[in-house]
Design goal:
By secondary structure, the protein is of the alpha/beta class. The structure holds pyridoxal-5'-phosphate.
């Protein structure tokens, strides 16, 4: 046997293309408008900043290992059983934990065509096989997902609303998807943008998690709560799933300052209401203004929009470069199979107006 000269990762690891986050710089531009990662233009509730600063006085102590104070705050806020909440360093960590607990080599993880990229990464990292179901009108197609379920399927991931498309499926459709899945298949409902959705037929999924043993709902503090820097997420899970995740997570996987900020953020309903009001005003405004320029925009229920550019002439790539020279950082979504589109986050009024002005220049040039 030939001796290896260095450690070699498990099969498959080096085939994974690492996640590329939205850009955060635009060299040369006087002022930067970062609209590439769906962060809130309102920032976090002021009490969250205070709580974070206060936590700096006790940096030598380990945090509560099971995130108990945060789980209790979440449980109170949403009327849930704290024992069935698991917190993590962003919902990205929760998605990895779920995948590592329920999937291994030979197993399949299923998601939709333009679904959130973290699912694919988590599946590959666990040694599983990603299976993709086509969408209709950039929207999850329940029947297409169901037709791809095999005896090897272990997890179905559904971002609802989805990022980067901004589309959603009504709760009736989520329930139909769940009802047709085998009982051993875990349905992961990623509700990162739930707070922004203003539709009567939408639900994040708490009702399903409460009733069934194979549904998990993940949530995040990175979006409407404005705490992306702190990496804080959580899931509501059946007791069996929570137990599995607690066995494999790091013993202190959520840091204390993040926990303190999260608890404080959740107590400020008025800040969240303000963020929703802001989005309700500017999301439709942006959509209307962009469409006036002759560009197609996918109707979104989140805090971001997908703008479609022509394949030739005024391309998405050219728009991306042009907007960057004006300090406007958008998100290329080529890695999501959408090379002709750019995703833009709803910004503050200044950013939104600046975007439309620059886009008008670009289309007219
Ligand atoms: C932003 C986002 C998340 C949140 O990730 P965190 O790790 O909690 O910051 C999860 N799912 C989707 C679809 C997202 O867009």
């Amino acid at each position: 046997m030939t001796e290896l000269t260095r450690p070699i990762p498990r099969p498959g690891v080096l085939a994974i293309e690492a996640y590329v986050p939205g850009k955060s710089t635009a060299p040369g531009a006087a002022k930067i408008y970062k609209l590439s990662s769906n962060e809130t233009p309102l920032g976090p509730p002021p009490a969250a900043i205070e709580a974070f600063k206060k936590a700096a006085d006790e940096l030598e102590y380990y945090p509560d290992g099971s995130s108990k104070p945060l789980r209790e705050a979440i449980a109170n806020r949403f009327g849930l059983d704290p024992a069935r909440i698991v917190c993590g360093s962003g919902s990205d960590e929760i998605l990895s934990l779920i995948t590592n607990a329920y999937m291994g080599p030979g197993d399949e993880g299923l998601y939709s065509e333009h679904g959130f990229l973290v699912y694919k990464l988590a599946i590959l990292a666990a040694g599983g096989t990603p299976v993709v179901a086509p969408e209709k009108n950039l929207t999850t197609d329940v029947d297409a997902l169901l037709s791809r379920v095999t005896p090897k399927t272990k997890i179905v991931y559904l971002a609802n609303p989805n990022n980067p498309t901004g589309t959603y499926i009504p709760f009736e459709d989520v329930k139909r998807l769940h009802a047709s899945l085998p009982k051993n298949v875990l349905l992961v409902l990623d509700a990162a943008y739930a707070e922004y959705v203003r539709r009567n037929d939408y639900a994040a999924g708490i009702e399903l998690v409460s009733e069934f043993e194979n549904v998990v709902m993940t949530r995040t503090f990175s979006k409407i709560y404005g705490l992306a820097l702190l990496r804080l997420g959580w899931c509501y899970a059946p007791a069996g799933v929570a137990d599995a995740l607690n066995r494999i997570r790091g013993p202190f996987n959520v840091n204390g300052p993040a926990m303190a900020a999260g608890i404080a953020a959740m107590a400020d309903d008025s800040h969240i209401a303000k963020a929703i009001t802001h989005n309700d005003r500017w999301l439709p405004w942006l959509m209307t203004e962009i469409e006036k320029l002759g560009l197609k925009v996918t109707p979104s229920v989140g805090n971001f929009l997908l703008i479609h550019f022509p394949k030739t002439g005024k391309t998405a790539k050219q728009a991306d470069a042009f907007l960057a020279t004006h300090g406007l950082i958008l998100r290329s979504v080529a890695a999501y199979g959408l090379p002709d589109a750019l995703r833009v986050t709803v910004g503050n009024e200044d950013a939104n107006r600046h975007l439309i002005a620059a886009l008008t220049d670009f289309m007219g040039a």
